[in-house]
Amino acid sequence: MKLTCACIFISLIFLLKVNAATGHCTLSMNTDFGEPSPVYIRNDTYLAPNASSGFILLRRSETLLVGCPGTKKFVVLGNFTTDVNFLDVQCVSNKTFRAGRWVGQFKDIKCNSLPWFTAEETSVYCSGRHKLFRIGYQLRKFHTLYEACFDRELLSTLYVHHDISPASHLMQNSSSRPQFIEGNVFGKIKMSKVYAIENQRERLNSILGNNMDQQYITKKQFLNRGHLAARADFILRAPQKASFHYINAAPQWMRGNAGDWAALEEALRRRISKYGTSVKVITGTHGVCTLPDNQGIQKQLFLGIDENNNYVIPVPLYFYKLVYDPHKKRAAAFISINSSYYNSTMIEKLTFCSDVCDGNKKYSWLRWRSNDGTHSFCCNYEEFSKYIDYLPKLDVKKLFY
After folding, report:
1. Contact by Cβ (8 Å): 282, 161
2. For residue 36, is the peptide bond before it cis, meaning its omega torsion is within 30 degrees of 0?
3. Among candidates 85, 144, 108, 99, which has minimal Cα distance to 27?
4. For a designed S-S bond to 381, which of 10, 23, 217, 396 qualifies (C-beta 3.0 to 4.6 A apart)?
5. Nearest partner of 203 among 185, 222, 221, judged by Cα
């Protein structure tokens, strides 16, 4: 271990010396970036580190597009606030960059306030009559981070699609956790109020009967904003911030959110880091979670009511991630039942495929957190796509593991 660490240290010193001599730039993820952090675009894609070194390496004179999208958002260069919200910066040497006449350290390039991301409805249909939204930042043109298939009637996201790269485990640290935003997607529904504990209790009592909330909602168990595309799947701060849109969330019981679901997210990033190739991930919800009312009858759970008194914002029965490598044509689906209140008979009934992970050494990288009270399982693509039949069709030849 000491020899390995020494070799890494020597390699890093050598890399820095070479870059200083050749004029290349080497940026450390957690020491060379300013805050509030701008959006960084390189070769028309979001900036990301080298997966093996963990550093961002640029050639001399290579240019980045740096931006602070949004109203009254401006790029700051050192102590000077510009009157533009995006500009090109050029590598000079090591950590020094140029923007017009300004020359300074890369970490001194920042925004006057946090950049603004948006969710835009496209003309593309998904899962029948629903529309696909794209979420990202507008700099010269729109740069998409992830896409979401959204049901405007139920105010519910069927699935989101994004890529996870081998560098995703190198998530940049951040000084604060962003607030979720709703944009103009949810109409008159205020999503922050929907997720408030008081509203959860009110909705459960309305659906299940008086005081039934006391059986299900506690300090440790309640319905959380369950990320679909995980924050940590996005490496730099601005892309992480863009994951905090309510279109990228669904009501998820806390024990599962912090249990099996968190275990899956973390395990996938570790696996893809070793896998060495970016993969496509479709993360979605399916069905509606039920609980017995005060008469013992199973009732579907919803967190909202629209202006026509229709139930909206269903509590999903399932959360899932479909992982796909389009080059090797490998896929696998990982599913979590969104409830810790089901008995073994119910769980067996809800497990809709043969669990390809169970007892399979090829999935030793995935460890479910069995003490969270929820149940999760894995499917091959054929069985999964027969049950969840509204997703885009994939060309799959082998199992992803």
Report:
1. yes
2. yes
3. 108
4. 396
5. 222
Q: Taking a C-beta distance cutoff of 8 angstroms, is the pair 335, 377 a contact?
A: yes
Distances in Å between the alpha carbon of 265 and those of 218, 259, 260, 386?
25, 10, 9, 24
CA distance 85 to 280: 31
Q: Distance between CA atoms of 26 and 16, rounded to whole angstroms?
A: 7
- For the annotated binding site for Mg(2+), the residues are 257
pLDDT at 373: 81
| pLDDT, tens digit (0-9, with 9 covering 90-100), for 167-197 | 999 999 877 889 999 999 999 999 999 999 9
Question: Rounded CA gap, 227 and 281, in Å?
Answer: 13
Give the tens place of pLDDT for each residue, 137-153. Answer: 999 999 999 999 999 99
Question: What does DSSP say about strands 302-305 and 109-111: parallel, antiparallel, or unpaired?
Answer: unpaired
Annotated binding residues, written as ranges, equal 257
Phi/psi class of residue 206: alpha, beta or left (left: φ > 0; alpha: ψ in -120 to 50)? alpha
CA distance 251 to 194: 10
What residue ranges of the chain have pLDDT lower than 50? 1-21
Q: Which of 227, 245, 286, 375 is the catalytic position?
A: 227
Tokens 């169970």 — which residue? 358
Verify whether residue 130 is a known catalytic residue.
no
Residues 135 and 248: beta-carbon distance below 8 Å: yes
- For residue 221, give the 3-state DSSP assignment: coil
Identify the CA nearest to 79 among candidates 116, 101, 110, 115: 110
